[in-house]
Amino acid sequence: MNTLAEAAVDLTAIEQNVRTIGAAADTALMAVVKADGFGHGAVPVARAALRAGAGWLGVASAAEALALRAAGITAPVLSWLHRPDDDFAALIAAGTDIGVSTVAHLHAVADAARALGVPATVQLKADTGLSRNGAAERDWPEVTGWARKFELEGAVRVRAVWSHLADADVPDSPGLSRQVTLFEEALALARAAGLDPDLVHLANSAAALGAPRTRYDLCRIGLALYGVDPFGGNGPGRYGLRAAMTLRAGVVNVKRVPAGTGVSYGPEHVTRGPTTLALLPLGYADGLPRAAEGRGAVRLAGRRCPIVGRIAMDQCVVDAGDLPVEIGDEAVVFGPERDDDRTQPTVAQWARWARTIPNEILTGVGARVVRRYRHDETELS
Ligand SMILES: *Cc1c(COP(=O)(O)O)cnc(C)c1O
């Protein structure tokens, strides 16, 4: 291995996932590349998704939207989590769509558009059950009313009406039906206010794959884009998604120790018999959750080997038993699922070990882990 710790990102897998989801959902797709592309790198993932036919890019913050433009990406972009003092003029000038959830935001966006002399393109978000962002039911008439006023004035154009689902990953969720009903009502009210959105969107990954009636014109795809089953294996099918990230490191030290040897901080782990310990330069600052203590494992020397003792900030210790392990040998923390080889953990397994979700493991991969991009078996950078 030529680096100590790396996250190898397979851009061919990203492309393939876009095609797989696009074929299943039969709608346009928005590749959600917030949080640096779920830790994979927003710009390379965005480019791969666009190559494979995604029509849109979605991010949370204005800064994330502007970073895509700064990288030279001209495709349609939507950002949706804005602070009142965000630089809406910068977004309008960059030609990105602005997700709007409140009257106050709408006024701020219209003010920026007037000052710039360029209309803002907005996507109005309704809250249909998450109680996070999105206009609440009682505020929706006011939001759509002001949006129509600003449209007539020429300050804004309403491109879309949209919302976000709370539990699309739960098959047959009654909450989902209720959200669809509320969304339909919000859409009808928007049209009654005189708005005529080109785009209507509601579905995330799980809904795109599992709930056809939520697909409308566009599905916003996060987790599935990165090749992780949004149903955690409990969904309506196997989708042929391919995990894009492999987190791995070369062994930096190896020692043979006798029984009774303490390992890592604290008293938790003492070897039961003579064994070989392999040290990996990956710790919780690199994304290995301490909460996986006693459960986490890696693939090393062709086997699954447990991480023993506490995971430290920069490193962790693997018990390799009597396997022949040498400094420099590659250990895979997680990577794609392989039907022929169950020794390699997946990110979903790590999430279960740490009592969390794969999204948190992926976005937790630390900044000092080098991202290396592969495309069609070729090293790109
Ligand atoms: C993160 C996010 C998504 C992507 O969700 P997945 O379940 O990962 O597909 C879609 N829409 C919004 C508004 C989001 O914040």
Describe this structure in words.
The chain is of the alpha/beta class and 381 residues long. It has 2 domains: 11-226, Alanine racemase (TIM Barrel); 245-379, Lyase, Ornithine Decarboxylase, Chain A, domain 1. It contains 11 helices and 20 strands. The protein has helices at 11-25, 34-38, 42-51, 62-70, 88-94, 103-116, 140-153, 174-192, 205-210, 347-353, 358-363; strands at 5-10, 28-32, 56-59, 77-79, 97-100, 120-125, 156-162, 199-201, 218-221, 245-250, 253-257, 262-263, 269-270, 275-280, 297-300, 303-308, 316-321, 330-334, 370-375, 378-379. It has a 10-stranded mixed sheet with strand order 11-14-17-16-15-18-10-1-19-20. Strands 8-7-6-5-4-3-2-9 form an 8-stranded parallel sheet. The protein is elongated. Residues 32, 34, 80, 164, 204-206, 220-224, 230 line the site of pyridoxal-5'-phosphate (PLP). Its cofactor is pyridoxal 5'-phosphate. This is Alanine racemase.
Brief sketch in words of this structure:
With 381 residues, this protein is an alpha/beta fold.
